[in-house]
Amino acid sequence: MIKILSSAQIRELDQFTIDHEPIAAIDLMERACQAFTDWFVARFGKEKRIGIVCGTGNNGGDGLGIARKLTELGYHVNVWEVKGNTESDGYKVNLLRLAPYIKVSEIKVLSPALFKDCDILLDAILGSGLSRPATGLIADVISAINNSLAIRIAVDIASGLPADGSMSGPVVRAHHTVSFQLPKLAFLLPENQDAVGEWHLVDIGLNTEYLESVPCQHFFVTPKSIKEIVRPRGRFSHKGNFGHALLIAGSFGKMGACILAARGALRSGVGLLTVHIPSCGYSILQTSVPEAMASVDPSETNFSAVPNELNYAAIGIGPGLGMDTETINSFAKTTKHFKKPMVIDADGLNILASNPELLSLVPKESILTPHPKEFERLVGKWSDDIDRLTRLKEFSSRHGLIIVLKGAYSAVATPEGDVYFNCSGNPGMATGGSGDVLTGILTGLLAQGYSPKETALLGVYLHGSAGDHFAQERCLESLTASDLVECLPEAFKKLKRA
User: Fold this and answer.
1) Any idea of the CA torsion for 431, 436, 441, 447, to the nearest 10 degrees?
2) In the CATH scheme, what is the code of domain 224-496?
3) 305-314 per-position pLDDT tens digit
């Protein structure tokens, strides 16, 4: 896992590296400039006309150092500076080092056509030390950068974007952000997508001792960290070793959700699967998912009665279930009598939102998988994405549940207050039935004996990776939920190679 540190912790990490490597601050800045330059040169040719806009702090010092390195490599570079109240030592040194190569132009009065000749604009104005929204000339320069037709690249973080929060003032709308060593929390919040663009990490050799010891509650998942979760199968394994799961899903007109969840569970590797369905779905299930066993509800159309025996390794409940009164009562009885962690999605979440008293019946460490609208029904409206993240952690901790908040960088919150942001997945997965497949995957993994936290991290990653495989081999727009099921084997194979 990659730790996501606060801006204050990142400053401490820089200083710890300076003190313990040891390395001079200007030499660490030089290392950052070289790492950025290496990233840039690998992607853009010397025919591009480069503009770099610098402030007078350390971010500006980075920009000046990058300007020198690109000029030495034969790039055509123009540099502008926006004066601040103070000049950092790094800025002063790199300004002197750049002097033999380029004349730096100070922006005093903004011209609308200032950046018209630039193919690429690098933003190195404010960096991560932002304490208040940009105003005055800096705000005007940010606007001019955004109005440029150039490719916009932020050095470490877009100017105007708080590293630990959401946009609240003028901000550079970067197409790319090249961050030093670690991602910022801001990169993972939906509200900030226009300011971040595609983000990339470059290694600048910050001290690993500090990273290992510093406390942290936010993490970015990596394929290697997920690979460590997967348990190899023994040669003499049999279906009894991989759990018997129960899915309670489907109602009249919504059997598709049930089928998708069942197929997802089977592709996850579960040993046995029983699906509890209304009688109208019996033929559909037996025809569509012959590997699953059927438990038939007395009702023709909906979930009305809890199965007699609940001696399953895991239960998943919710896809296509409906909100009938009988269904709500049967849902409550299931959560009351099943003592192990469950997976709850879709109408299961809607039942909890409309009957919050039932939350106390949900077994501890159960996995809830809301999309943002379902989560809003559970916790109420939020003011911004930081407020949403706070509510996510509070809800998880208060109820002792693992919450998977679905979306780009799906967030897995644990009762301990930690949040893990997933690295896989793509916008093509924003399609009906995708969440049902995830419910099946999670139910199948939980039945196999993975812990609820392991289940959530592994399942969310595999689900996203399956989507990535389809997008890479086919396209984003044509992805369907069934494609996620079919691509799960490739997701497992790719993980083994991580």
Assistant:
1) 170
2) 3.40.1190.20
3) 999 889 999 9
